[in-house]
Design goal:
This protein is 48% helix and 13% strand. It has helices at 8-16, 32-41, 51-56, 63-74, 80-96, 108-112, 118-136, 152-162, 187-195, 210-218, 235-243, 252-257, 269-274, 286-289, 293-304, 308-320, 326-342, and strands at 19-25, 99-106, 139-147, 171-175, 199-204, 224-227, 247-250, 278-281. An 8-stranded parallel beta sheet has the order 1-2-3-4-5-6-7-8. Helix 9 (187-195) links the parallel strand 4 (171-175) and strand 5. The structure holds zinc ion. The site of zinc ion (ZN) has 6 residues, from strand 1. Substrate binds at residue 285.
Length: 359
Amino acid sequence: MTPALTDTTLLALLRDMPKAELHVHIEGTLEPELIFALAERNQIELPYADVEALRRAYAFTDLQSFLDIYYAGASVLLHEQDFYDMARAYLARAVRDRVVHAEIFFDPQTHTARGVPMASVINGLYRACRDAERDWGISCALILCFLRHLSEEDAFQTLAQAMPLRDRFIGVGLDSSELGHPPEKFARVFAHCRELGLHLVAHAGEEGPAAYIWSALDTLQVERIDHGVQAQHDAALMQRLARERIALTVCPLSNQKLQVFPDLSQHNLPRMLEAGLRVTVNSDDPAYFGGYINDNFEQLFAVTGMGPAQAYRLARNSLQASFVGESRKHAWREQLDDCFVRHGFQDAIDTSEGAPILP
Ligand SMILES: [Zn+2]
């Protein structure tokens, strides 16, 4: 169990600072209570007796053991309203964590393979995003992810199914089982997506080697790397990531839960930040990994000794790495600076765009 953050002024700052979440799988926000409620509504029998039994099954040892339960949980999603309710619950939670902008991953193949129409998935999620913007002022966008354990041909078919709703998602990503499924497996479909003007991201270097990060950058030509923590084993790659200001969407509690870093105090995020990398903090699959974005911030700061300067850099990185126009980023940066002044941490404001923070 990670100790709580005892510095109450830093805790208040972390909770209150405006931030963007750039790595969250909407299916990974399904809380056990909602899984059971949707199972009842859709008359689906679950292989777990109750909410507590399902929660107890969340004892993962690696990425694959998590994915097995994750796909079982997603089986309760059938209708457009189910996808709406799931996204609505996540966005309500994100607003409480002062997320001003969320770029949300969704895995259509997990649903279309069960006979759920693509339009039910995208329209439910999209409607939740628009309603959240109207009701709570949070900005959000959708990123369609291909499951990398499936074929590139399957990815092409998925993209074709989604194209009638092209105006409802801003980009594509690559997720699911990483090892044995290198980015280059999806070279042609990513090239096609690039021609379509979609933003490109990919999971790389979570459990897989640094070589996967190179090929995500060079072969897929992604704009951000999801996870990327294995870059630490490749000095040339670290230098490139820093030089080209490529954002890494890091997920500390996910990495701890899936044993990428068995102890959060040994997480390499502080070292990557010091090396000048554009690192961000995200929740990945918060319902499964024990925490939403602010839990990630709080637990990481509790054990690594990072302070307001790193908090500012991480929040600013998240806003800068988002796929929105400069005028909105400018407004959010002003909110961020105001927040640091309000909390008495104006000395931590640093507009140098990530020159290395020395320990
Ligand atoms: Zn992920």
